[in-house]
Amino acid sequence: MSLQMNDGSQNPPRIEIHQAMWGMSGLGENGRFWTLEEQLDKIAEAGFTGITGAPPTEEARKRVERYGLKYGGGGFPWTAGDLEPMLRRAKDNGSMYFNSQVLDNFVIGEEAIRRLAEMTELAARIGMPHFVETHRGRITQDIIRTADYVQAIADLRLTIDFSHYVVNTELDGFVPQTAETAEGYFQLLLQRTSSIHARVSNGHQVQADIGPEGTESQAERFYKWWETGMRNWLQQAGPGDILPFIVELGPPPYALTRTVNAYNDTEITDRWQQALAIKKRVETIVDRLMAERQTNGE
Hints:
By secondary structure, the chain is of the alpha/beta class. The strands form two sheets. Strands 2-5-6-7-8-9-10-11 form an eight-stranded parallel barrel, surrounded by four helices. A two-stranded antiparallel sheet has the order 3-4. Helix 1 packs parallel to helix 2, helix 3 packs parallel to helix 4 and helix 4 crosses helix 5.
């Protein structure tokens, strides 16, 4: 079984740009939120080829099938025992991979390694590609402990979301030595890229404003990390493998709002337009990587 998301074909490895359903929460126009079905319409119209999170309604499922959207599941397991029914349900629902935010951030050391190893072995037995997300507040709380995990577990694959680590190491550029040390850890983790969640942090807010074109300066280091992860993945991928690059700009309280009562207040950015801006920029990176592979005869 491939450790990657795979469509069962002999096609060359490819990178697809998907959209997180969670990131569609609270979006709309003309004074109302989009329905779930409208969210899927918008995703397909924008050219995304997949989603995270299997749609919960029959009408939504019909739209996913109509548009040919691929999707992956996800959950919050503590142990392999928790994970097993999640994986089986996801497989039955047609998910092509499963993303885990493993609980919790107070599980460390050998116990954490044991749990992650058991989850990795379980997923291989069930036949479901399983990616552990680099997420603060989880077993992957920081880059140091997550580096230990990948060094201890050969088949551990990651969903890369460095916005969390940029925040919890406060990488804001004021202490260059810190950034240099962190970069070594980032490069190690990027070798295990199997999925990417796209969100930009500035070292203080987990989801920073990157402007309508996605070109604000703090975004550039993320584009470089994402490209490195894609390159690493392509070097390891086989026929039929797919890297899901998922734009995941979350609603409040992830999104910046005008006051502290985040769930009730107005976002200060146009989250959907920023999602489209990230998609557009990443498409240029993917096109360049694919052209390089074709030139090199890969």
